């Protein structure tokens, strides 16, 4: 499981990094989204990978065997903040496109 | 509170397995059809296998499983069934109509015409 | 006071399905259902008039059976793959009702049933464009839909 | 015996759903048009939901139910928005 | 005398107070008020100096000390000894004369208050240098003189020359000041103190210290720049653009003397080594000679005086370099003498300029007949400058010649000194003669800007008269005029080393007298020889006229500080986003992996924990889709968005699979909302055409390849670290505490939720603040939003459909869309209450089961969103009036009020309370304040999300309105 | 029960948060009321921060540890007030009030929700200064950043939006780094509390420690982006110069937040123990390069705004280098420098706007933006008309000169004192007989060079601005625009006069920081308020 998860994180990071280095604003926003998925999974994975041990207390489970709730709480916060910033970046890229007339991150049409 | 699965009565286990697999297999067939059917309008039909029987079978399996397992009447899965049944058509309808519009706009001869003005746009 | 009693009841049922059937949740569910009913009222939707609501189970039963059947037929078609005759096609289905609820239910039924898909409704001509996967006889399809569903729907909603 | 049956059925079903998702995603990658991709996404949502329900059966827990319910109830919003975008070029008019 | 120390403080502070006072005299109509202030202040300072004299005779020292920055030995220490006294008196006395002179010199149009304000401030700074008892304090005043001299030189800032001259002066003296500071710091390092007295007492220690040389160099840099010594001399002639009183004050008597003053001040601590002699001597001699040489060929009166000043300062420097006490006496004496005659000469030059309107010696001649008195005074002063006997200049020059022939250090530099001295003396005679002869004698001047020059008012001439008289008195009867004061000064510098010397005019026939004679005769001869050439030649010395320090300096400055800087900035910096992000990612990559590399990372033995095939398949899918999203994002935006949705779904399943149902729910909801958001945004992005793929240059290819390498390495690195950290169980983490106490103390069974609303509720508070502020930003930004031209039009689909409706006679406009949404909107409307119910459900169970305020809030906003989708903005807003800002405000307040409620019970912020309530009929119901907090979260989330979505959705309506407005405008035209 | 005064620790966060919540209830048109709330809240902040500072300069090392939610240290979130945080709070409050008053003249009306964002920015800053928990730090960083995004874009216009987009993109990536770093640290140390982390460091096995270092490295990058270390700093001059004047004025402290965190964490975690001196060389080298880049940039800037932006880099570079040298006395000098340069840069940014208002180019750009992007639904922006005061130019010139003097580190203002304090600690009387190392020599040379560069650039630009164009009209300036600038400059003067006491405070602060044990102990010993009524201990179905 760890192997799969870490490979998945790696692939998403790679794609995200590639995208944020691209010149189009839309590519950047997709890249940021992918990166935040990767980072969320990373934080999540840091607590160790446990299947079917959700940190929800019930009478018959030993608390210590449950999954680590702290990374989950952190990821939850990170998701929310990621959502907010994605929305913001989106609007900024729209505004920038409106003002500069193109969707290049530097506001110019580049002759590649 | 949950019955260990080894203590399940055999009939229940078999019923769960049958419904589950039936649903799963129909879903799979549906997606295979979705992959293989040649035109969009034909492909539109395939996933409904999953939304109808796939969901249904799985729901039933789950209801049986949990009802037997907890020895209480647990049927809240039915909600999933209801919602899927009610909401999926919206997507399909809207999408089919959109596809129709796009095909017509492109002048595709395969689709029934109500001659709309031609012009091309692919927001894709 | 209670804009949508049936809805409120359904929401209460939903609440209890989710939370469990206790007295507390009955009260809570009713409150929530009541509030949600008012929320819907603020949208000012057309009120459905259910004339013969007792026919609904009959419709449901028919639909379940149809879905069951068509599931297998479509599955068969898919499994057959290339060997099957290319028999799909479009049908223009004239509908009598203009009641949006009846149309909605019809749409749900037709879309949920594998093998038929609702493409377009034309309010001027009162027609629905359908796409059918296994179209052997257009008229038979039209007749089937009219007889099996529309008649019932007209009875329920008009 | 029932354990074996149940476990086999559940893992088989999970596998099948996962496979179905892969197939749907192939269509998603292949397109050819946007509508195909959106339908594929919808299918993916349904299959994911079924996978979650199956996972719930496999673990014998009901805590995963809400996740499935959320997909069932709200998953369509994203695809509806996409469909409307295709049709009207604008999501909210 | 107990009053003594306060005299010091007053001397330093009074000028600054006066400066402020005159700065606030805004009414420029009165010319006399600022003059009165300045004169009073200066006179007071002079009086104070005189008062202080009894305290400094016989090597006594007047001290004042106040703590300033005691930790670092920087105290406000003032200290006046004989040397400081004589300098302060000089400064204040000449200051007073200059004030008087300036009263008449400055024209009606000049802003007088500003002038006197700067002048007084400068005087304060100068006095500060002189009486500082702490070397750092000295540096402070040192820099202040640079600043104020900048302001004074640039007083006529309309004049480009004044601006440039001021800037150059500031740049050079400022840099010198920095060097001086470093030098002082090094002195501090060597001696452990900044106190002047202590430093002066530890001269031997300083000279033997390994840091002596750097210290010396830095201090000399400071002193030499200030005193305009070669090779830093060129700023002084350019500073002549200043008003003449400023030149008279700063560039003859005071500021340029600061450098040599410092050298004298630190003479006991630094002098006497070969390095001292060599560095200082070389600079001094070169300056002496070059300054005099350059002075001959100046055509500007003030230019001549400026170069002569440079030369004289070179003389003083040379004297100081010798390291002999007697030379030091000569140096001090010459400083005083130079101040008197040069100040008077500057003022005379000012009068000439004032009366004739020019300072160009090619145009001036025969002024004696117009300005007899001024001419006489100027002649006496120049004679002093030339070193004619019976004038003060002669005395100190004689002492210099006497020292020059002595041997001080065995070096070629020492050996050539007598010749250099004589030559320079001759030059000085030449330029003095030239000054007098050209200006005052000869035919009537022609073509002067002002036709009839006449004598200035008497009080304008008075300062010159006074100074010339001083020159004469000192020159004729040195022993009864200057001698006691000089003795006091010398005593305080040299202490026990004070040599025997005599200030007599006549020492008999000796070599110095011979040298004087040679210089006098030689000078006259030179002048006669080149007189004709001088009358017409260009400004500047022959042969090296093109080689001007100023020009070189400016070229270098422009090259280094402008061209090179701009070039370098463009090389090592960027204003584009892509390279920035590339750097950031790269550095992040290094920062993550280098520590592992350095520490020699060794992975723990690999344990294969088994792979769930379904999960593996899922991630094959996820990876594929993220690759596809990366591939498609450029040309197929919608497809990329779909892919992104797929990846999100897989992530969400992963959360469920790995025991995080809460995360899964939240992720899903966020996924839905984000997708709709991006779709809303896609409306305003132009479509991209994949067919327009242009030719890729090799550079672009290389760049892409580099990005690819970077992306792949980041991916691998991240996988690696993720794997490493995942295979290590978290060590006795705080997690266990949460798991054990969530129910007993937090009252909830969903530990994640308890952490969010209770254990770490403060995080959640911050998080909702983030969401809120982002919503506000989005709203604010979109209020001014204007789409680009190519997305301004109605979307093509809508146009086609509208045209279709128009063309069909039986259809009304908008039928297509109405039919399109007829059936779906019914369902969507009826989903509204259902989703609300579900939101309430999610909210209520949050504390015990997956759910919570955040997911409930998102669900709620999706319910609203769906209505917008179904009916459009107008329709929805006719029916449901959501006031997102209110929701947000109430939410934030609720959350905070919950937190603050704990205060009432004496607990810290956010302490939660929990109990079961026994409700009739219902039974026990858990009631935690955390639930109230969660309610705040819920409301804020609803408000913010709706605000963002609605703000975006409103753009369509706004554009329609704009379009209509623009159409109307076009019609009007 | 705890004393009421104890709650004062959290007040710097709550007051602006409360104000921003209240502001949401007011309509955009109720501008006066909004401004009132904002000003009152900020004044309150100044007062609170002052009291906290007073407490800190008292005999105790720690003003207090605040256990949020009444949870003991490593589990709940703690706020820790020590000398450093009190200082930063005070600094932020002072800048806050200055920038806010400045904005009241016209800027606050140039877009929606200025005051809410401003208050949230202050809340975020204060939270980041106070918190003793790594993840909470992230959260408050984000609050601060989110608000700064809004403020950065405040006023709109193409330049601002483009710069804002870069700023946001860069900071989003930085936030991801932050998350990766924090989670790595949690994964290897099992705690998020800074004090607890420091206490646990010695017990961590080597292979875990490596990963922790990796985490710390990545985390450091996030802060260095904020602080503006080369090559992570290219966004900074552009963003700061594009932001509106009051915003740039308050932004002056944002880069210092990065420095603050680095200072806090290095002193706490890498002071001694297994990670002694971790990353110090990187800081030293990075600071050096940053300083060089800043110097080059200062020289190469044509526009005043960019000059100011590069000055931020100069000050960051200097501070980073000093942190890299990692010497107690030097650091206390650096703290003084931090305060002084923050005031300077803030005042400078606001001044620039006033000065450039008189120049035609600037005015034109503004007018064009207003015309092109002002909307119909924009309720009439009343151009607050400034009166051409007599002597406006003189006062502006004086302020400009003061800024130049401060930036160049010339006396008599605090720029000199701060530089002197740092330099003397390195080689002067503060370091008797310690021969300067190569690093120190480099630092000295660079510090001096930076002063020279600022001097050259400021005179060049100043002469061009004030004296170059005679036809430039006298800018219309309001008193409430000039006052904040002069207020900040007066503060630097005060800092000069009271250099001794100020330095004393810095010294104590650094000494406390240099002894992490006391910090750790204070956090660990902080007691929960007893008498908490706990819920049933039995876990089960309700």
Question: How would you describe this structure to a colleague?
Answer:
The complex is a heterohexamer of chains A (112), B (124), C (158), D (93), E (973) and F (542). Chain B is mostly helical and 124 residues long. In chain B, 67% of the residues lie in helices and 0% in strands. Chain B has helices at 10-36, 40-43, 48-70, 77-105. Chain B starts with 9 loop residues before the first helix and ends in a 19-residue tail after the last helix. Chain D is mostly helical and 93 residues long. In chain D, 85% of the residues lie in helices and 0% in strands. Chain D contains 3 helices and no strands. Helix content of chain E is 73%, strand content 3%. In chain E, the strands form 2 sheets. A two-stranded antiparallel ribbon of chain E has the order 1-2. Chain E has a two-stranded antiparallel ribbon with strand order 3-4. With 542 residues, chain F is an all-alpha fold. In chain F, helix 8 (206-227) packs antiparallel against helix 11, helix 11 packs parallel to helix 13 and helix 14 (328-357) runs antiparallel to helix 16 (392-408).
Keyphrases for this structure?
heterohexamer; B: 124 residues; mainly alpha; 4 helices; disordered C terminus; C: 158 residues; alpha+beta; three-stranded antiparallel beta sheet; hydrogen ion transport (chain E); cell membrane (chain E); MrpA_C/MbhE (chain E); antiport (chain E); transmembrane (chain E)
């Amino acid at each position: 499981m760890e192997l799969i998860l870490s490979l998945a994180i790696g692939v998403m990071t790679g794609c995200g990094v590639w995208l944020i280095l691209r010149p189009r604003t839309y590519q950047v926003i997709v890249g940021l989204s992918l990166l935040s998925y990767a980072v969320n999974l990373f934080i999540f994975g840091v607590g160790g990978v446990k299947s079917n041990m959700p940190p929800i207390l019930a009478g018959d489970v030993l608390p210590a065997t449950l999954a680590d709730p702290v990374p989950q709480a952190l990821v939850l916060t990170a998701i929310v903040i990621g959502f907010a910033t994605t929305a913001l970046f989106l609007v900024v890229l729209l505004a920038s496109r409106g003002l500069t007339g193109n969707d290049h991150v530097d506001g110019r049409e580049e002759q590649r | 509170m949950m019955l260990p699965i080894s203590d399940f009565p055999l009939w229940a286990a078999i019923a769960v397995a049958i419904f589950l697999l039936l649903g799963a297999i129909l879903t799979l067939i549906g997606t295979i059809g979705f992959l293989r059917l040649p035109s969009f309008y034909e492909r539109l039909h395939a996933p409904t296998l999953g939304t109808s029987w796939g969901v249904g079978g799985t729901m039933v399996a789950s209801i049986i499983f949990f009802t037997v397992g907890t020895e209480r009447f647990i049927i809240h899965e039915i909600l999933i069934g209801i919602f899927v049944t009610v909401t999926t058509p919206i997507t399909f309808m809207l999408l089919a109509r959109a596809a129709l519009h796009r095909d017509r706009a492109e002048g595709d001869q395969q689709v029934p015409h109500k001659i709309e003005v031609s012009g091309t746009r692919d927001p894709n | 006071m209670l804009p949508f009693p049936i809805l409120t009841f359904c929401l209460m049922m939903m609440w209890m399905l989710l939370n469990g059937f206790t007295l507390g949740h009955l009260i809570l569910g009713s409150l929530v259902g009541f509030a949600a009913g008012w929320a819907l009222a603020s949208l000012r939707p057309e009120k459905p008039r259910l004339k013969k609501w007792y026919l609904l189970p009959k419709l449901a039963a028919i639909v379940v059976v149809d879905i069951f059947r068509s599931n297998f037929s479509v599955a068969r078609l898919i499994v057959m793959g290339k060997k099957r005759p290319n028999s799909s096609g479009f049908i223009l289905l004239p509908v009598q009702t203009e009641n949006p609820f009846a149309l909605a239910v019809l749409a749900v039924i037709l879309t949920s049933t594998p093998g038929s898909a609702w493409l377009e409704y034309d309010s001027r001509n009162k027609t629905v464009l359908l796409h059918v996967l296994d179209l052997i006889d257009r008229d038979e399809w039209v007749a089937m839909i009219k007889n099996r569903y529309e008649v019932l729907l007209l009875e329920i909603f008009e | 015996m029932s354990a074996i049956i149940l476990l086999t059925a559940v893992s088989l079903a999970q596998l099948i759903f996962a496979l179905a998702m892969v197939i749907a995603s192939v269509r998603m990658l292949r397109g050819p048009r946007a509508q195909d991709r959106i339908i594929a996404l919808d299918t993916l949502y349904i299959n994911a939901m079924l996978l979650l329900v199956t996972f719930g059966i496999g673990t014998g827990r009901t805590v995963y139910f809400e996740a499935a319910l959320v997909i069932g109830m709200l998953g369509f919003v994203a695809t509806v928005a996409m469909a409307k975008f295709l049709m009207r070029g604008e999501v909210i008019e | 005398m107990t009053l003594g120390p306060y005299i010091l403080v007053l001397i330093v502070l009074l000028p600054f107070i006066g400066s402020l006072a005159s700065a606030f005299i805004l009414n420029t109509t009165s010319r006399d008020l600022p003059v009165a202030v300045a004169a009073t202040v200066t006179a007071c300072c002079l009086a104070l100096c005189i008062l202080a004299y009894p305290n400094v005779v016989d090597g006594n020292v007047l001290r004042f000390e106040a703590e300033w920055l005691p930790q670092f030995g920087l105290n406000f220490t003032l200290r006046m000894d004989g040397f400081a006294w004589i300098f302060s008196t000089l400064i204040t006395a000449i200051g007073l004369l200059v004030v008087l002179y300036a009263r008449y010199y400055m024209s009606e149009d000049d802003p007088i208050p500003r002038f006197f304000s700067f002048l007084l401030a400068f005087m304060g700074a100068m006095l500060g240098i002189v009486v500082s008892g702490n070397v750092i304090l000295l540096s402070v005043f040192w820099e202040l003189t640079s600043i104020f001299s900048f302001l004074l030189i640039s007083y006529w800032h309309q004049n480009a020359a004044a601006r440039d001259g001021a800037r150059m002066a500031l740049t050079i003296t400022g840099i010198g000041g920095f060097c001086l500071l470093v030098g002082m710091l090094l002195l501090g390092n060597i001696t452990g103190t900044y106190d002047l007295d202590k430093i002066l007492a530890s001269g031997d220690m300083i000279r033997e210290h390994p840091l002596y040389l750097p210290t010396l160099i830095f201090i000399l840099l400071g002193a030499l720049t200030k005193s305009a010594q070669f090779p830093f001399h060129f700023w002084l002639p350019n500073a002549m653009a200043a008003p003449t009183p400023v030149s008279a004050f700063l560039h003859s008597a005071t500021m340029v003397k600061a450098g040599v003053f410092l050298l004298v001040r630190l003479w006991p601590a630094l002098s006497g080594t070969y390095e001292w002699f060599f560095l200082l001597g070389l600079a001094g001699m070169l300056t002496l000679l070059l300054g005099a040489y350059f002075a001959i060929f100046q055509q500007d009166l003030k230019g001549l005086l400026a170069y002569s000043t440079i030369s004289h300062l070179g003389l003083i420097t040379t004297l100081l370099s010798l390291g002999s006490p007697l030379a030091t006496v000569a140096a001090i004496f010459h400083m005083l003498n130079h101040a008197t005659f040069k100040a008077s000469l500057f003022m005379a030059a000012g009068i000439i300029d004032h009366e004739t309107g020019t300072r160009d010696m090619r145009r001036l001649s025969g002024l004696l007949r117009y300005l007899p008195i001024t001419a006489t005074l100027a002649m006496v002063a120049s004679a002093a400058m030339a070193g004619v006997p019976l004038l003060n200049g002669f005395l100190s020059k004689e002492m210099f010649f006497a020292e020059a022939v002595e041997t001080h250090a065995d070096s070629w530099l020492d050996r050539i000194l007598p010749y250099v001295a004589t030559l320079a003396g001759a030059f000085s005679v030449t330029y003095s003669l030239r000054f007098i002869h050209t200006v005052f004698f000869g035919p009537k001047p022609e073509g002067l800007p002002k036709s009839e020059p006449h004598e200035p008012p008497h009080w304008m001439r008075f300062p010159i008269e006074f100074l010339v008289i001083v020159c004469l008195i000192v020159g004729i009867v040195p022993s009864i005029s200057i001698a006691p004061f000089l003795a006091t000064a010398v005593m305080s510098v040299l202490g026990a080393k004070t040599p025997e010397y005599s200030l007599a005019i006549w020492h008999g026939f000796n070599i110095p007298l011979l040298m004087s004679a040679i210089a006098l005769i030689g000078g006259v001869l030179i002048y006669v020889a080149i007189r004709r050439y001088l009358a017409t030649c260009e400004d500047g010395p022959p042969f090296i006229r093109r080689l001007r320090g100023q020009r070189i300096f400016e070229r270098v400055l422009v090259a280094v500080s402008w061209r090179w800087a701009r070039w370098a900035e463009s090389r090592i910096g960027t204003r584009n986003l892509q390279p920035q992000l590339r750097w950031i990612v790269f550095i992040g990559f290094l920062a993550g992996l280098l520590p592992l590399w350095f520490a020699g990372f060794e992975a723990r033995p690999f344990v294969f924990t088994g792979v769930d095939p379904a999960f593996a398949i899922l991630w094959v899918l996820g990876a594929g889709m993220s690759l596809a999203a990366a591939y498609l994002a450029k040309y197929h935006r919608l497809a990329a968005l779909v892919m992104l949705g797929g990846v999100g779904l897989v992530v969400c399943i992963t959360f469920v699979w790995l025991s995080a149902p809460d995360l899964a729910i939240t992720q899903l909801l966020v996924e839905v909302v984000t997708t709709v958001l991006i779709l809303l945004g896609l409306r305003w992005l132009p479509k991209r055409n994949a067919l327009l793929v242009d030719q890729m240059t090799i550079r672009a290819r290389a760049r892409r390849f580099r990005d690819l390498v970077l992306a792949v390495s980041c991916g691998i690195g991240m996988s690696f670290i993720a794997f490493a950290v995942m295979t290590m169980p978290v060590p006795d983490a705080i997690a266990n505490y949460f798991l054990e106490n969530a129910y007993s103390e937090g009252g909830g069974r969903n530990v994640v939720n308890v952490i969010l609303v209770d254990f770490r509720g403060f995080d959640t508070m911050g998080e909702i603040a983030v969401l809120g502020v982002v919503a506000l930003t989005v709203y604010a930004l979109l209020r001014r939003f204007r789409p680009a031209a190519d997305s301004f039009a109605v979307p093509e689909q809508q146009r086609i459909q509208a045209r279709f409706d128009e063309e069909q006679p039986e259809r009304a406009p908008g039928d297509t869309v109405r039919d399109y949404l007829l059936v779906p909107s019914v369902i969507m409307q009826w989903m509204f209450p259902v989703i609300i119910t579900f939101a309430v459900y999610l909210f209520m169970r949050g504390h015990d089961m997956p759910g919570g305020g955040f997911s409930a809030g998102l669900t709620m906003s999706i319910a609203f969103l769906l209505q917008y989708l179904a009916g459009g903005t107008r329709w929805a807003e006719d029916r449901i009036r959501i006031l997102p800002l209110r929701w947000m405000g109430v939410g934030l307040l609720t959350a905070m009020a919950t937190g603050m409620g704990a205060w009432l019970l004496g607990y810290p912020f956010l302490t939660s309370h929990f109990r079961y309530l026994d409700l009739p009929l219902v039974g026990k119901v858990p009631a935690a304040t955390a639930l109230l907090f969660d309610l705040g979260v819920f409301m804020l989330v609803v408000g913010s999300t709706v605000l963002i979505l609605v703000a975006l959705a409103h753009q369509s309506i706004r554009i329609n309105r704009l379009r209509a407005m623009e159409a109307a405008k076009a019609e009007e035209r | 029960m705890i004393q009421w005064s104890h709650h004062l620790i959290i007040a710097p966060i709550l007051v602006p948060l409360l104000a921003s919540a209240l502001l949401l209830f007011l309509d955009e048109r109720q501008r006066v009321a909004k401004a009132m709330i904002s000003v009152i809240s900020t004044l309150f902040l100044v007062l609170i921060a002052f009291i906290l500072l007073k407490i800190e300069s008292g005999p105790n090392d720690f003003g207090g540890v605040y256990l949020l939610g009444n949870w003991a240290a490593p589990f709940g979130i703690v706020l820790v007030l020590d000398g450093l945080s009190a200082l930063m709070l005070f600094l932020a409050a002072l800048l806050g009030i200055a920038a806010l008053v400045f904005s009241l003249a016209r800027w606050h009306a140039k877009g929606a929700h200025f005051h809410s964002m401003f208050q949230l920015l202050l809340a975020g800053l204060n939270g980041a200064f106070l918190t003793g928990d790594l993840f909470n730090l992230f959260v408050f960083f984000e609050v601060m950043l989110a608000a700064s995004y809004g403020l950065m874009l405040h006023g709109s216009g193409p330049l601002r939006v483009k710069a804002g987009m870069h700023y946001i993109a860069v900071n989003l990536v930085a936030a991801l780094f932050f998350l990766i770093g924090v989670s790595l640290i949690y994964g290897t140390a099992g705690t998020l509390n800074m004090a607890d982390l420091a206490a646990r460091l010695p017990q961590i096995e080597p292979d875990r420690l490596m990963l922790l270092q990796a985490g710390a490295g990545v985390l450091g990058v996030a802060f260095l982006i904020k602080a503006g270390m080369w090559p992570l700093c290219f966004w900074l001059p552009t963003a700061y110069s594009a932001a509106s004047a009051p915003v740039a004025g308050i932004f002056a402290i944002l880069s210092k937040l990065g420095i603050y965190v680095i200072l806090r964490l290095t002193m706490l975690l890498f002071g001694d123990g297994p990670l002694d001196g971790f990353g110090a060389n990187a800081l030293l080298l990075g600071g050096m390069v940053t300083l060089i880049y800043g110097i080059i940039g200062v020289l190469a800037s044509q526009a005043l705004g960019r000059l100011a932006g590069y000055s931020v880099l100069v000050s960051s570079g200097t501070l980073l280098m000093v942190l890299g040298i990692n010497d107690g006395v030097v650091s206390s000098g650096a703290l003084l420098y931090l305060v002084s340069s923050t005031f300077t840069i803030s005042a400078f940014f606001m001044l620039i706007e006033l000065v450039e208002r008189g120049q035609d180019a600037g005015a034109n750009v503004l007018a064009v933006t207003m015309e092109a992007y002002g909307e119909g639904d924009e309720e009439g922006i009343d151009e607050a008309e400034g009166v051409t005061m007599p002597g406006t130019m003189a006062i502006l010139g004086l302020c400009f000169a003061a800024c130049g003097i401060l930036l160049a580190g010339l006396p008599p203002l605090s720029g000199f004192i701060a530089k002197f304090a740092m330099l003397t600690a390195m080689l002067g009387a503060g370091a008797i007989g310690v021969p300067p190392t190569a690093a120190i020599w480099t630092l000295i040379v660079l510090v001096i060079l930076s002063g020279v560069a600022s001097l050259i650039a400021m005179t060049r630009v100043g002469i061009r601005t004030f004296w170059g164009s005679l036809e430039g009209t006298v800018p219309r300036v309001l008193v409430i625009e000039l006052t904040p600038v002069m207020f900040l400059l007066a503060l630097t003067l005060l800092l000069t006069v009271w250099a001794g006491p100020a330095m004393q405070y810095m010294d104590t602060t650094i000494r406390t920081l240099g002894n992490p044990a006391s910090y750790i102990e204070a956090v660990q010993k902080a007691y929960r308020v007893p008498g908490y009524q706990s819920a049933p201990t039995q876990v089960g179905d309700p």
